[in-house]
Design a protein that fits this description.
mainly alpha
């Protein structure tokens, strides 16, 4: 173990920090956008919507994220129709594919969290909305979703940390984010211990910063309402890199 190697590894790992943050935030935003309609499908009275949403979450949560990333980046490129489509400029770029794969995967987990929170809202609140003459749309926007998101706010913060860790898988498709930069530097120096210790510390610090931001945001958002963020029933999630 060499202190000099630790110091040399720091600037190398930090060269990938900007790309890591970009992938993390873009994938997280995509996941949140996709999760809500899927969650509404999971709680819909329409059996076709429920079945489609269940299939979506079952497939994405039941298969490894790395496999999904390989299918998106390497697999789809085999089809001429894909290469001729307007999506090809995105699908041929490994960074964009990483954002898509991680974001889509994240949406399946968040959708189940939101659906669980919606199911826990007392039925009496829906009956009260009907009595007040609120439409189903207004009921969801004004009554259901604010309560659901208040309950799952800590879980959303946790999901951002999981997406951050999942961003390291982008190195598997040649993206030079922090893990990719660390792997490339290790191939030159044959010092994996020092290099990946530095990478791990940077991931830890970024994750801590995200966690702190969510804690402060939770306090600011819910202090005036008098409601703490309750724990929502949600399926356990395995760490990124394992079966997703």
């Amino acid at each position: 173990m060499s202190l000099e190697m630790f110091l040399r590894a720091v600037p190398v790992v930090l060269t990938g920090l900007k790309l890591t943050l970009l992938i993390t935030l873009a994938a997280f935003a995509l996941g949140q956008l996709l999760a809500l309609p899927v969650a509404l499908g999971r709680t819909s009275r329409n059996w076709a919507l429920r079945g489609a949403a269940f299939t979506y979450t079952f497939l994405l949560r039941g298969s490894p994220l790395l496999v999904q990333l390989f299918i998106l980046y390497y697999g789809l490129a085999q089809f001429p129709a894909v290469r001729a489509s307007v999506l090809w400029p995105i699908l041929r770029d490994p960074a964009y594919c990483a954002m898509l794969a991680i974001g889509i995967n994240s949406s399946a987990y968040v959708a189940e969290v939101i659906a669980g929170a919606i199911r826990k809202i007392p039925a009496g609140q829906f009956e009260a909305c009907v009595t007040l003459g609120l439409s189903r749309r207004r009921t969801f926007i004004d009554v259901v979703l604010p309560q659901a998101y208040r309950a799952i706010f800590p879980a959303i913060g946790n999901e951002l940390i999981l997406v951050l860790k999942a961003s390291s898988l982008a190195s598997a498709v040649t993206v030079m984010e922090m893990t990719g930069a660390a792997r490339a530097f290790t191939a030159k120096t044959y010092a994996p211990f020092e290099v990946f210790i530095v990478a791990g510390i940077v991931y830890l610090l970024v994750g801590f910063a995200f966690s702190l931001i969510f804690r402060v945001s939770e306090s600011a958002l819910f202090r005036s309402t008098g409601f703490g963020a309750a724990k929502a029933a949600a399926p356990a999630r395995k760490p990124a890199g394992a079966a997703s």
